[in-house]
Design goal:
Number of helices of chain C: 15
Number of domains of chain C: 2
CATH topology of the largest domain in chain C: FAD/NAD(P)-binding domain
Chains: A mainly alpha, B mainly alpha, C alpha+beta
Strand content of chain A: under 5%
Radius of gyration of chain A: 23 Å
Structural class of chain C: alpha+beta
Order of helices and strands of chain A: HHHHHHHHHHHH
Number of domains of chain A: 2
CATH class of the largest domain in chain A: Mainly Alpha
Distance between the termini of chain C: 43 Å
Helix content of chain A: 55-70%
Helix content of chain C: 25-40%
CATH architecture of the largest domain in chain A: Orthogonal Bundle
Oligomer: heterotrimer
Shape of chain C: globular
Number of strands of chain C: 19
Shape of chain A: extended
Radius of gyration of chain C: 24 Å
Largest interface: A-B, 31 and 24 residues
């Protein structure tokens, strides 16, 4: 029996399998590290035009402003988690598109305020629900909240489907609309009148992302 | 032997799939009791676009007011704030307007004291109260009242 | 908002209202004010204040500070009425800032100024109380949380012989109203009810004294009605008992489309005022009904500096008073001629504008001037006036004349004569006082030219119920105070006579509000 095992270890097949496992593990580790390190605000902001989004994220409980200091990574809510391939594909696609706009395109042409109206398209609800699992039963949620969450569930997979961010307008980004305005005012009348606000935000951002 | 194993594996796979399907069915709750709304009533009491988009039903706002639309009452600030949190929260969301003293939810005249329905109406066009005195400047400060 | 003459539909509406009013009056006349024996009180307080403006809140604050249980009734959803949209300027005769900056002032000088503007028909004993107690009232307001810009030179308002006006921190009456409302609400047993309309006084069994009020909760003012007071029946009836007394502080009636027109038929129903929509006469009329003496009711002060191209007070008053009127001219658009001294008192100018508007309600006169006529401190308003379209800018007089359909040649002639007279050092036909010792022509012919259309707007109703120096309402039946009834602010009459000086409204309201709160 022992001999048999010994022989097997010496066989080519075993070496082949072991090498495969080793390479696989190494690759997974690299992938994991790669994905992990490219999933937080420090990385994303390199290419994505999102200083006001990051600044408002930092003042939200999801961005580390809560008592516990927990920080939810950008990708948790903004990338699909249904399967790894889709996740990697979307991530890579976004990276290339955003990178191209950042380096070769015109980032100023992005209409943040219009995009904010379509906020539910930028949030992947599974991300929210992966933490907020008991959102239809948690007794700490108000009666109205539970009622509305059940309403949300009842609309799923219908043509009236809504997203978490349809109602939770500035979720994850406290004061998002104000921040966006400091960078790109919604009204002409405000032009140039927020410069000191914007400077303060930039300074704080540099400090936090150091 | 190989065949047996494959069959077994496929069986396990299907079992989990079925569980997944059943599980997701279970989490769905039946739609809430709906008040019968005639087309005529719907036309008479249209919803604001931002509320219609969420497919809100009469009783979502007119809570505990029976199922006779003719008897529905105004829901007051309390009703609005049961979803919209607090006047402080609403004022904070427009903080950028404070810089120029034109935040309607934290106005220089009224602070956070105004009733919601001083300006916002659900079933008819909203009316910005600021216009009473600032008829010409409101349009440069803010958009139409939602 | 566009000014229009009364349409046939409105005329019909008014007729119908007159009929309905007559029917209601018939029933009301029989009912008169209810007696305490006929009603069941829902709630009981020491003091009930009607109105939440400067006078009402000063009265409530003082009474509440004395430990009394106070209920404030406000018919609007908003707290503060005209006071919360007012400019926050408070004339404080002989104040500490004046002393610090070496400005000599006295109560006597203040009374002299007020009498001059009031054409001498002021009730002087009331002015004496304001002159004597303004600083003390100011301190009381600060104690209640009001915020003023102090430690700097007081502001000089037109008609005052010295600078004696202190302005609130945010340049709005809200810096007094908001903290004072909070001050009262914080005190135990005190309450402020909005959207609650005072309907009637409740009288004692003998009908002699006021012991409470009838009101409607969950009432909503409807500005679309010709007379909300007569037509609006919304809300649920409630009776409130006032153990110590009722303080009437319901303000003036510059927005009462029916009543103001009765007093001054030049004011059309659809005419805008500088006031908020709820400034109506209803509560004051109830006081008359139980015997309060009316004073100076038909003296309605109108602002000749307002514009029909914006609603309410707006930005025009600043641009005309500290701009176009000073060196520029106001002309009749039909003939291009001047028609008044642009720097006369409010009444003289409003009357002159009405002469034109009565002949042609659409022929609003136009004030014209150039850049240099604007005081440097109103530069921000100049920008706002142009941006919002209230004021217009023209490169040439021809373009200006074409825009307002003024005969161009006549307009040019008017300005030529105006400039030549001023430069010759002669007095012009209207005796304008701001054209003396000018180094250059008052209207620079190079342009560009700035213009604003003019429309008098009701601003302050001088008349109201007669009160004595203790803020007690005087009865026309007995000549004595009506027991249990006090009043303060714009609902009272006589203090300012024919015309009130700027920044004296806050002084009057806060001083007599406080006095009422002391005496109730």
């Amino acid at each position: 029996m022992i001999k048999k095992v010994f022989l097997f270890i010496k066989s080519k097949l075993f070496i082949f399998v072991m090498a495969g496992v080793f390479i696989g593990l190494l690759f997974s580790l690299g992938m994991y590290e790669g994905l992990h390190r490219t999933s937080n605000d420090k990385f994303c902001i390199v290419c994505h035009e999102m200083a006001p989004m990051v600044a408002s994220y930092h003042s939200n409980v999801h961005g580390g402003a809560g008592k516990s200091g927990i920080k939810v990574a950008c990708v948790t809510c903004h990338l699909p988690h249904d399967n790894v391939l889709n996740y990697i594909y979307t991530k890579a696609k976004n990276g290339v598109v955003e990178g191209a706009i950042h380096f070769f395109g015109n980032p100023d042409a992005i209409d943040w305020h219009k995009n904010r109206q379509r906020r539910d398209e930028f949030v992947v609800d599974e991300g929210c629900i992966s933490c907020h699992t008991n959102y239809t039963t948690n007794p700490n949620i108000s009666e109205k909240g539970i009622k509305m969450h059940k309403h949300y569930v009842s609309l799923q997979d219908t043509d009236k489907q809504i997203g978490c961010a349809s109602c939770h307008v500035e979720i994850g980004h406290k004061g998002l609309r104000s921040m966006l305005n400091y960078y790109k005012p919604e009204y002409e009348f405000y032009d140039g009148k927020f410069d000191s606000k914007k400077e303060a935000v930039e300074k704080q951002l540099l400090e936090t992302l150091k | 032997m190989c065949n047996k194993k494959t069959l077994y594996l496929v069986g396990v796979f299907l079992f989990f799939n079925a569980m997944y399907l059943i599980g997701s069915e279970v989490s769905k709750t039946p739609p809430a009791q709906e008040v019968a709304v005639s087309a005529e009533l719907q036309e008479k009491f249209p919803l604001k676009n931002h509320h219609a988009k969420l497919s809100l039903k009469c009783a979502d706002c007119h809570e505990g007011q029976g199922d006779e639309p003719e008897n529905f009452q105004m829901i007051g600030d309390e009703g609005c704030l049961s979803c919209h949190k607090s006047k402080q929260y609403l004022a904070d969301r427009l903080k950028f307007m404070d810089v120029l003293h034109v935040n309607p939810h934290n106005s220089i005249h009224d602070g956070q004291r105004l009733y919601c329905d001083e300006c916002h109406f659900e079933h008819q066009k909203s009316e910005n109260m600021c216009l009473n005195c600032h008829s010409n400047d409101v349009k440069i400060w803010m958009k139409d009242t939602p | 908002m566009k000014q229009e003459t009364v349409s046939r539909r409105d005329a019909l509406k008014l007729g119908a209202l007159g009929l309905a009013g007559a029917m209601m009056a018939a029933t009301n006349a029989m009912a008169a004010a209810p007696k305490e024996t006929e009603v069941k009180f829902d709630e009981e307080y020491d003091v009930i204040v009607i109105g939440s403006g400067f006078a009402g809140l000063a009265a409530a604050s003082k009474a509440a500070e004395r430990g009394l249980k106070v209920l404030i009734l406000e018919k609007m959803g908003r707290v503060g009425g005209n006071s919360v949209i007012n400019g926050g300027a408070f004339a404080v005769p002989n104040n500490r800032d004046q002393q610090q900056f070496g400005i000599k002032d006295s109560a006597d000088l203040f009374i002299k100024d007020a009498l001059k503007a009031g054409l001498g028909i002021n009730h002087v004993e009331m002015l004496e109380v304001i002159g004597k107690r303004a600083q003390e009232t100011f301190d009381f307001a600060v104690k209640c949380g009001a915020k003023f810009q102090t430690g700097k030179k007081p502001t000089w308002f037109g008609g005052h012989s010295v600078a004696r006006t202190i302005v609130t921190e945010n340049m709005s009456g809200s810096a007094i109203i908001q903290p004072m409302a909070a001050f009262v609400e914080k005190l135990p047993g005190c309450k402020l009810m909005t959207r609650t309309k005072f309907d009637d006084f409740v009288m004692s069994a003998d009908g002699e004294s006021v012991v409470g009020v009838a009101a409607r909760e969950n009432y909503r003012f409807n500005k679309k009605l010709l007379s909300d007071d007569m037509e609006n029946t919304g809300g649920t009836k409630k009776f409130f008992k006032a153990r110590k007394g009722v303080i009437l502080a319901s303000g003036g009636f510059s927005m009462d489309k029916v009543y103001r027109k009765l007093q001054d038929p030049r004011i059309a129903e659809d005419q805008d005022a500088t006031n908020h929509d709820g400034a109506t006469a209803g509560a004051m009329l109830k006081a008359f009904q139980i015997g309060a003496l009316p004073v100076h009711i038909d003296w309605i002060q109108q602002g000749p500096w307002a514009s029909p191209d914006e609603r309410g007070f707006g930005v025009a008053p600043l641009l005309t008073q500290q701009g176009l009127f000073v060196l520029g001219v106001a002309v009749d658009v039909r003939n291009g001629k001047r028609f008044m001294n642009e720097m006369a008192d409010r009444k003289t100018r409003a009357d002159a504008e009405y002469v034109i508007l009565r002949e042609d309600p659409k022929a609003n006169p136009v004030a014209i001037g150039t850049e240099k006529t604007f005081a440097p401190q109103i530069a921000h308003a100049v920008e706002k006036g142009l941006q919002t379209g209230v004021m217009k800018k023209f490169d040439t007089l021809d373009a200006l004349a074409a825009n307002y359909k003024i005969p161009a040649a006549a307009l040019k002639e008017t300005i030529k004569v105006y400039n030549e007279t001023a430069m010759a050092g002669k007095e012009d036909e209207f005796k304008k006082q701001t054209l003396k010792n000018l180094k250059e022509a008052p209207i620079d012919m190079k342009g560009p030219f700035y213009a604003i259309r003019l429309q008098p707007k009701p601003h302050h109703t001088m008349g109201g119920v007669k009160i004595n120096t203790k803020a007690q309402v005087i009865s026309g039946n007995t000549g004595k105070p009506i027991p249990g009834l006090f009043a303060a602010g714009e609902v009272t009459g006589g203090t300012h006579g024919a015309s009130r000086l700027g920044s004296c409204a806050i002084a009057d309201c806060l001083v007599f509000g406080m006095v009422a709160g002391e005496n109730v």
